[in-house]
Amino acid sequence: MSSLFDKYAPLQTRVDMMMKIGQDALGVQFDDILDATRGRIGNREILLAGTNNYLGLTFDEDCMKAAQKAVESHGTGTTGSRVANGSYAEHIDLEKALADHLGMPSCIVFTTGYQTNLAAIAGLAGDKDVIFMDADAHACIIDGTRLTGASTIRFRHNSPEDLDKRLKRRGEIEGGNALVVIEGMYSMFGDIAPVDEFVDVTHRHGGYLYIDEAHSYGVFGPTGCGIAEEQGVLDKIDFISGTFSKSLASVGGFCASRHKEFEITRKIMRPYMFTASATPSNIAAARAAVEKVKAGGHLRSNLKERAQQLHAGLKEMGYDLCADASPVIAVRRPNEAVAAMEWNWLIENGVYVNLAVPPGTPQSSSLLRISLSAAHTEENINAILKAFGELKSAQGEMMQNMAAKLA
Ligand code: PMP
Fold it and tell me: Mean pLDDT, 10 residues at a time, over the chain (407 residues)?
């Protein structure tokens, strides 16, 4: 008789290979987190270089105090949805603060960033609409399109020209609208969308532009609003989504719009209505972090400097980097086994980065993905560079070990 789990046999083989080489990359346990840049695995202190903690605010005193105070005054959870008992004055206040920051009349706060895209994309696109989505779209954008009856068309990654062609081919969308979905900075390669060009193409065809700034809100733009602000087109974006789990150092998400009619979707978005709202402490920490973002020019310039330092250093060593310098620096490796072995070696040598392998990566690439923080110092970057330098010299021995382990 077959088992429910038979279909996972190929996956089990991959996991077994990982375990032979070292530890399960999808199951790392941190035994302690010391601050925004240091953790502990077992007895080893680890430099954190793969946490999306872009502004380093997870241990910011004001954000921590705000979260502590919220627990004391409003408890540990809301025990209800935004459309029932789970909308507190603080949820609404955070929506207002984000709307003001982005200069938009409407903003809706969700329980996670994942649910934000799920809810908003499915809430915006109806059966007659067409979603045009970047080829490298994040899983939650893809999943959002699956919750709608809208048809979905993918265009070439970061290519306004390809989008233009596809919108032209589609012509007038009978009885419906076009919703174009892109990201600001892409999470795997750290490459940046030409948002200004996407605005032109989308609006020329009468479509709506939706941009996920999960990795760019707080990180780019003079006041931290993201790539759209950096490229001078913030006021032309129809919908901006973001998460609290990266630069805002909390958990939750938001979607803002220059269309005040967006508010009506609160009444139909399933991942907004049928889940508990974000906890008081998550909301309070994010609210305090928004103020840090607005005043965070020094954090953004430190982050930029560190990114340039690391990018230049890795390039000089001959590493194949996936994009220009940005807070995400992805080092391309020849295959999954080599990447896994190197990733383990880096942890054993005190540096945590992300191991990113297909199918979650663009171009089926195997990556050592580094994400930097404004809390990283010049010395931290030197330590990462030192580890990557030694990794090169350890290559021969590592290959022999891998062959023995996989034999
Ligand atoms: N959008 C993008 C582009 C992401 O990379 C992620 C998560 N890494 C999300 C949305 C979801 O955010 P969260 O983890 O806060 O749910």
Answer: 94 89 88 98 97 98 98 98 98 98 98 98 97 97 96 98 96 92 98 98 98 98 98 98 98 98 98 98 98 98 98 97 97 94 95 94 95 98 98 86 78
Within 8 A by CB and 6+ apart from 381, the residues are: 306, 309, 310, 313, 372
Residue among 279, 277, 281, 283 nearest 70 (CA):
281
Ligand 1 center from residue 216 Cα (angstroms): 11
Counting from 1 in the atom list of ligand 1, the atom nearest the Cα of 243 is 15
Q: Which of 243, 244, 250, 255 to mutate to test the pocket of ligand 1 (most atoms within 8 A of CB)?
A: 243
CATH of domain 61-294: 3.40.640.10
The dihedral region occupied by 28, where left means phi > 0, alpha psi between -120 and 50, and beta the remainder, is beta
Give ipTM to 2 decimals.
0.99
Q: For the chain, where do the domains classified as CATH 3.90.1150.10 start and end?
A: 6-55+297-406
Amino acid at 128: K
Fold exhibited by the domain 6-55+297-406 = Aspartate Aminotransferase, domain 1 (3.90.1150)
pTM value? 0.96
Strands of 249-396, DSSP E: 253-257, 328-333, 351-352, 354-356, 366-371
Distance of CA 214 from the midpoint of ligand 1 (Å): 6
Write down the H helix ranges in 56-159. 61-74, 89-102, 113-124, 139-146
Sequence ranges of the chain with CATH classification 3.40.640.10: 61-294
